[in-house]
Amino acid sequence: MHRDTGTPPLFALVDVNNFYVSCERAFNPRLAGVPVVVLSNNDGCAVSRSAEAKQLGVKMAAPWFQMQGLARQHGIVALSSNYALYGDMSNRVVSVLRDFTPDVEVYSIDESFLRVEHLQHLYRSRSALGQAIRQRIAQWTGLPVCAGFGTTKTLAKLANHLAKTDPAWDGVCDLSAMDDMARQGAMEKLGVNAVWGVGQRLAARLEPLGIRTVWDLANADPTRARQRFGVVLERTVHELQGISCLELDDLAAPRQQVMATRSFGTEVSSLAALREAVAWHVDSAATRLRAQGSVAGAVVVFIQGNRFRPASPQGNAGHAGTVVPLEQPSGDNRVLTTAAWAGLQRIYRAGCSYKKCGVMLVELSARQQHQTTLFCNTADHSKSEKVMAAMDAINRTWGRGTLRTAAAGLSQQAQWAMLSEHRSPRYTTRWDELPVAR
Amino acid sequence: MAKYGMPLLLPLAAHRVPAGFPSPATDYAEDGLDLNGYLVQHPAATFLFSVQGHSMQGAGILDGDKVVVDRSVPARHGHIVIAVVDGEFTLKRLYQRHNRLELHPDNPAFPPIRLTEGKQLEIWGVVVGVVRRYRV
Fold first, then answer.
1. What is the average pLDDT across A274-297?
2. What is the pLDDT of residues A156-192, one digit of tens each?
3. Residue A258 pLDDT class (50, 70, 90 cuts)
4. Residues of A with CB below 8 A from B5's CB?
5. Between the ranges A40-44, A55-59, A214-218, A384-388, where is the mean pLDDT highest?
6. In chain B, at which end, N or C, are there fewer CB atoms within 10 A of the end residue's CB?
7. Is the pLDDT of residue A97 over 90?
8. Pick from B44, B72, B87: which is nearest to A29 by CB?
9. In order of start, what are the domains of chain B with their CATH numbers?
10. Which active-site residues of B does the annotation give?
């Protein structure tokens, strides 16, 4: 889709600083300057931290109950996640970016890649373009963003990392505009795990080879990188050297798996309650499965004990999971639920208490493509599709969970439903929760 | 995505089809009126606020009204704005003359807010519309 005009590619990565916290602050001026954390589903652990909270030593994914002392001492404000708000604000940011260029890849809820080589001549410099993006998003949505520019996606991501961590950049860093000395200096200062796709574990394996900094990796031999670590790292080395290997994924590829999981509000030990929760997750995952036009070939079900608590007399439940292959790929909640329950039966241990469960639909294929078996009843099959289509239509109109399989439970407040004690109002999506002005 | 019964909105040409001559009105089938389009110029920058109190009564904004706030509009003297004063959202008219920056209510019972030294004024957005529904 990119007109080949001979202009070398230029990528930008734009991401929102402390996204969830910044969304909360946009609608609650009292949170300015105060240490704020947003907690994960079920108020389990910190998933977004303000700069003040980071300074106090609150770590990413730190369990909230371990932070209570620190929170009281410093007045840390903890909020439950408000996904309705974050989703809406994320869409707004993306639509502002699309006003700059249609070449946008939404990489996650708070980051997007842009192709900008056809845009840069409109601005004094790339930094000026970056500042224009920053300014527009701040004005239109109230959210602070950083922008990184590079000739490859990996370099753009690295530039963004620099812009975010060093205030001297004023939120915009352009690696492609630095001279060689400056770029080398910046790369030598960063540990290799700052590179996109290089995690702690890979960094530990690179260390014995003398590859400690980003600069070391940029100077590694790509062929040897492939031989030892595979094609992904070879590509990363190329990209660090300025050879673009990764394009924008203009069209989001259908997901290869669909997952639904959540912690329980309180620990659960009865099989009946687990079955109810598993069925609810199947409903949720299957809805997304059908929305992308897929069917699943197998169902993975897993349950997990409390990892913050030592083993109970019955033994620690730990993590248990199993895969249940389906005779025929299916998108039918009833088929998938039956399979998930069969799996659950296998891994459940009476007397243990569980903190979390989930299902994953895997071996996905397009709905029309799958082969039927000799014993498949085609009439049953098209009837099943109609029932599911009707169910999805009703749930879209009346809200999720209006119509579901009875297996998913009928109680309004099932004991495993999500805890969200400190959730802020859904300011942008509910008439009765709008922000108030006096 | 539209596989599962998403409603498809089609413009309706509301006339009978006579055998013989086609109606000349067919070419003028319209989309109808959309209040979003009327009230919202920049969807990504537009937010709704709920109004509490009577300070902007004179401007025709009443307790319980919803106001349409467009953040993309630069605030100027005379605009009705959402401002942040002492950590709260307030709805007032922006007064920006003779080196003075003030927030004026539109109700004689309320005093204007004068920005004294050290007091921060943040304009959150500019009000571009008001919505009211009557219970019938």
1. 88
2. 999 999 999 989 999 999 998 999 999 999 999 999 9
3. confident
4. 389-390, 392-393
5. A214-218
6. C
7. yes
8. B87
9. 41-131 (2.10.109.10)
10. 55, 92
Query: From its phi and psi, is residue B80 left (phi > 0), alpha (psi between -120 and 50) or beta?
Result: beta
Written as six digits, the tokens of B4 are 């599962």
- Note the pLDDT of residue B114: 87
Q: Are strands A36-39 and A77-80 parallel, antiparallel or unpaired?
A: parallel
The rounded Cα A365 to chain-centroid distance in angstroms is 22
Map out the domains of chain A with their CATH numbers.
258-408 (3.30.1490.100)
Cβ separation of B52 and A390 shorter than 8 Å? Answer: no
**pLDDT beyond 70 at A15:** yes
Instruction: Quote the Cα angle for A414-A420-A424, to 5°.
Output: 140
Q: How far is CA B30 from CA A172, B10, B16, B34, in A?
A: 46, 10, 16, 11
- For residue A52, which of A79, A77, A26 has the smallest C-alpha distance? A77
Q: B13 to each of A271, B19, B22, B35, how far by Cα in Å?
A: 58, 16, 12, 21
Strand order in the sheet with B46-51: A436-437, B46-51, B66-70, B122-131, B80-85, B88-97, B100-104, B113-114
Residues A302 and A83: their CA atoms lie apart, in Å, by 24
**Tokens (6 digits) for B32:** 């109808």
- pLDDT at residue A38 above 80? yes
CA distance B49 to A427: 9
* Contact partners, residue A47, CB within 8 Å, separation at least 6: A20, A38, A39, A40, A60, A61, A81
Q: How far is CA A193 from the centre of its chain?
A: 19
Cβ proximity of A324 and A301 under 8 Å: yes
Find all residues with CB under 8 Å of A150, minimum gap 6, and list them.
A10, A11, A156, A157, A158, A159, A174, A175, A176
- Which chain A residues contact residue B84 at CB under 8 A? 29
Contacts of A427 in chain B (CB under 8 A): 47
- Min CA distance, A291 vs chain B (Å)? 6
∠ CA A162-A166-A172, rounded to 5°: 60
